[in-house]
Amino acid sequence: MYTLGRVSDVSLLRGAQGKEEGFAMAVVLCSFENADKHARGTRLSIARWQPRGGPRYPTLWFLAPFREDRTPIKMMPPEEYRTEYLQHVLFGPNRERINRWLAKLDKDEDITLLCWCNPARQKYYPKLFCHSILVGYLIQERRPDIEVVFADGREKPVWDGLI
Ligand SMILES: [Zn+2]
Predict the structure, then answer these.
(1) H/E element holding 141?
(2) At 74, phi and psi to the nearest 5?
(3) Which of 30, 41, 104, 163 could link 152 by a cystine bridge, Cβ 3.0 to 4.6 Å?
(4) In degrees, to the nearest 5, what angle opens at C-alpha 127 toward C-alphas 70 and 141?
């Protein structure tokens, strides 16, 4: 939990400029439903599909929870889910595409990665369970110069780290 403790400590230091000193940019993680409360900069989906009738966001398909054969990664306990998502997505065939995306995240422009998950949708779980949290951990590992904002329940995640 030290990682998130550090993130929330840092967010207390947020100045009037809205940008942390020393961070190139921010990546905000939140749900479609609460995007207006938390989002900064360009909004992108990393979900398998988007809410009907709302705004349509560009999707970063290489981060959506699909296996190589396009079957969805879903309906399994958190530990198993993390293993599947790392194996088939973050460290799987999309790895090079994801590495290129991570390397390009330096444009000084905040982005928000959207998924469905928020505490209201997961009211029977005490901690939030969402692949966007794993994406956030990967960004923290690879790009410590970027601020990752775990919003909308992600302050209390089901996993403590990427691995
Ligand atoms: Zn999610």
Answers:
(1) helix 131-142
(2) -165, 170
(3) 30
(4) 65
Q: pLDDT (tens digit, 9 = 90+) per residue, 48-68?
A: 999 999 899 999 999 999 999
Q: Phi/psi of residue 90, each to 5°?
A: -60, -40
Rounded to whole angstroms, the Cα distance separating 119 from 123 reads 6
Q: Which two tokens mark 72?
A: 């969805």
- What spacing in Å lies between the alpha carbon of 87 and ligand 1's midpoint? 17
What is the spatial order of strands in the sheet that 25-31 belongs to?
42-45, 111-115, 25-31, 146-150
Q: What is the pLDDT of residue 144?
A: 94
Tell me how far the alpha carbon of residue 27 lies from the centroid of ligand 1, in angstroms. Answer: 15
Query: How close is the Cα of 104 to the center of ligand 1, in Å?
Result: 23
Task: Collect residues with CB below 5 Å from ion ligand 1.
Answer: 115, 117, 130
